[in-house]
Design brief:
Layout lengths: L1 E2 H29 L4 H18 L5 H15 L4 H16 L4 E2 L1 H19 L9 H10 L4 H13 L24 H16 L3
Antiparallel strand pairs: 1-2
Helix pairs in contact: 1-2, 1-3, 1-8, 2-3, 3-4, 4-5, 5-6, 6-7, 6-8, 7-8
Length: 199
Amino acid sequence: MLDADFFRRWMTVTAASVDREAERLTALDSAIGDADHGTNMQRGFRAVAASLEKEAPDTPGEVLTHAGRQLISTVGGASGPLYGTLLRRTGKALGDATEVSEAQLAEALRAGVDGVMALGGAAPGDKTMLDALVPAVDAMPDGFAAARAAAEEGALATVPLQARKGRASYLGERSIGHQDPGATSSALLIAALVEAAGE
């Protein structure tokens, strides 16, 4: 079972991972976006980690809704609302339980992903964060490691796609041949689950 400590660890590991990969995320974004995805995500997850050190929400759902609020208030562009919605919807779906199972987390994450789809109007194949998140959620019943592999494959699979949503869609065919930064950062979020679980 996964408790609030696990979820705090998940957010902290994600923050460290985004810190390490910020330059790469920005490099990916400079090819097809505003060249700020790495710095935006870094600022947002640093704020999440700092805030969770000060406050200690005592349920998994509260940890994620708190993290989502932080991202919305500190991350610029589309990433803040999209990641904030992902975590807040997932947190709300977990409810007030003090412990949740991996299966419950998978179900809640699906609710979070549905929220992202509704907000951004994107679908898998549009070259967005959903190309990593949807396969990850589909694979999660087989464990966090399977979800991580599916997210990483999904992010890589955005390279040959033409962007149909977001800033990259303005480039048309010139968006082909570049890995989507949002899918890449989403894969980091999912990979952090494995590390947080000590797998």
